[in-house]
Amino acid sequence: MHAWLAVFLAVLAVSRAEQATEKLQDEYMMTIDVPAGRTECFFQPLTHEKFIAMAINYQVIGGGNNDISFIVTNPRGDLIVNDERQPSGEHKILLDDKNQRGDYQFCFDNSFSYQSSKMLYFEVMLLDTNGDYMASYQRMFENEKLLGEQMETFTSITTKVKNNLNQIERDQANIRIVEARDRSVMEHNFENVNFYGMLYVFVMLTTFGVQVYMVRSLFEERSKVGKLLRGTGH
């Protein structure tokens, strides 16, 4: 009974902390379309003392050869990531003497493509010292010291559940991305098969028609082509 009461009080404490404390968003997921010949850039602040690293994952799910160039610059303008025409990528940026706190810019460059736009999925995660990205919950729990060991247990369980749910969400997103990319490849191959199939049929019919015409010309005395084939053109 006391355990259930502790859990109930913990939920109330979290609710109060959410109202009194500004929530920190530490995870972003987005699907975008980068037109041909264009570059799409985003800015991600890494300023809060809770976070010591940033992880960025991206994957092209449709368009052209399913490739994109990816660039990341730190607050001083230094280039720290430069992927050239890759289908996907995973990067973890740690704060150090070179990479300091501030606004980080990351860009998806499709300027090398003249016709094909690229659809891609990316996610950005801000990590704390434990490698977790649920800073808002952790910070709220640190401000509430009323429940002692029960609060620590509730924090541990909530953290584990949140991390598991985040992992499941990432896995499901990756499955959807792979499915969308495979569907795009299959549709592209289907279009190629139809195009070349029609081309081969046209070539075969044209060749058949030419052969029939030439054979008939051999048996027609007045045909100039027949005379040329028989060697009696003169």
Automatic annotation (TrEMBL):
Taxon lineage: Eukaryota, Metazoa, Ecdysozoa, Nematoda, Chromadorea
Signal peptide: 1-17
Keyword Membrane: yes
Annotated protein name in UniProt: GOLD domain-containing protein
Family classification: Belongs to the EMP24/GP25L family.
Pfam families, sorted: EMP24_GP25L
UniProt keyword list: Membrane, Signal, Transmembrane, Transmembrane helix
Superkingdom, taxonomy of origin: Eukaryota
Membrane topology field: Single-pass membrane protein; Single-pass type I membrane protein
